[in-house]
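In the previous chapter we treated chains in isolation. Here, by contrast, the input contains three separate entities that must be folded as one system, with a combined length of 550 residues.
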Amino acid sequence: MAERYSSFERGGRRWLWQRLTAAFLVAVLAFHFFLLHFVNHADEVTFGMSQARMQEFTYFSLMILFLLTATFHGVNGVYNALVNQGLSGTQETAVKAVLVVASAVLIVQGVRTALAWAGGVPI
Amino acid sequence: MSQSYDRGLVEDFGRWREFKAGMWAWIFHKFTGWVLVGYLFTHIAVLSTALQSPDAYTTTIQSLESLLVVRILEVGLLAVAVFHILNGVRLLFVDLGLGLESQDKSFYASLLLTGAIVVASVPTFLAGVFG
Amino acid sequence: MSTQLPEQTEDESTETDAKPTAAPQERRLTKKRDRAEEADRQRQAEEAEKALDDDDTYYLKVFRYDPEIAGKKEPRFDDFYVPYHKGMTVLDALMYARDTYDSSLTFRHSCRQAVCGSDAMFVNGQQRLCCKTQLSDLEEPVRIEPLPHAEVVKDLVVDMEHFYDQMEAVEPYFQSSEYPDGELEEQRQSPENREKVKMSTRCIWCGACMSSCNIAAGDNQYLGPAAINKAYRFTMDEREGEDMKQQRLKILEQEHGVWRCQTQFSCTEVCPKDIPLTEHIQELKREAVKNNLKFW
């Protein structure tokens, strides 16, 4: 039986954010691929080159934003795929917790790496 | 009431020939999505060698890039990402309610375009690994 | 091929013991019944042969299952050969098979003109309405199975209760809190508004769409395309008033409401009434988003 919530639990927020992050990622992922495989070549990567890019504030903030949106989009996608397959109840809560923790770890590690290149926030 | 029989997933993969465009799009989008999420975590893990030392980072990346297997996987990654992007754009149009009549044609178009882009990129991706 | 059990023998033996004078009559009647049965069997055999010889026969494979009969507890496929005539539908073929070969073949059907929604089944790998599907459009052998993702009660009959539950959850009836000023004034609807909801009024509750949706298959709480379409029909009806619309949107906006739709389009593909279901669901998603943005 379809459940009726009395609290205003609107499932629409995550749906909308998934689309907004999608539009953003289409552009930025394409740019990222292009820059790192065609303009520069993946087999010529050095710490120095990554550092040079990361020390630019615009590029640095774009990469941080990229990390945040990609993490949300991906993890939310995974969560939805599981709910569609019938994940519910305690299992659902457990999976949600694991995903939130995994996202946090990913973001923290990514930001730390970015800072390592940039040598601090490149203001 | 008599017991009813659980036929399981009637439309399981055994019936793949009967799948229509919309269903394939959904399956591929999910599959490519999982691959990309898996890659995201791996990617950040590999990049975080930069936290150890500049040399650790450079050596890790360059030694990975020298392996043919990795290069081929990168082509696969390109295919997966390009499809997910193109079909994603198709889905964004569907969500906006534009072009719903040709949703199946746009799926085939994204497949074709993905193929074309991947084939065109193979030379760049495999450059230098045979030398 | 008939699975009917003979019932006559029991009665006879008791009667012969009780009334010895009735025995000759009984014997005559038994002989008569036997002759009739023999004639019937011969006729069936002849029909079957004729059907096999005839070029215009269609080969049907029909799903059989009956938990109450020993021989049919494990599902199997029965073969039926039906003579073809121009314009024959799958329903015609099933009815022929039931009337000629096996009267225990069970399936729902009623209007035979695609308005009652009783005979939705899984034919050659797609959800179709049997009375609306021409045999000549199908490749042999024609596989007929009950709707997927639903529990089978017997043969081609599935349990539709879950489908009805989801339909009822969206309050599929006209509700208005706004009435026109005069007591006997009609509640008017503009032609444009009617045109907007027109397609969504065509639903015959056949269940094909819900059966084709992979999300509905996996997620038991998902409302499903039919229910959401029904909600669309009323949400978009201008006669219902704004607060009614808000109430309806609240139902649709739950976690397992419109958001579960992944635009697989299978529902739109299989709908026998050509309702653009996915389009309606998408429109409701946009409505819900616009509605929520107002509060920020």
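The longest helix of chain B spans residues 68-95. Chain B has a mean pLDDT of 87. Compare these points with the single-chain example from earlier in the chapter.
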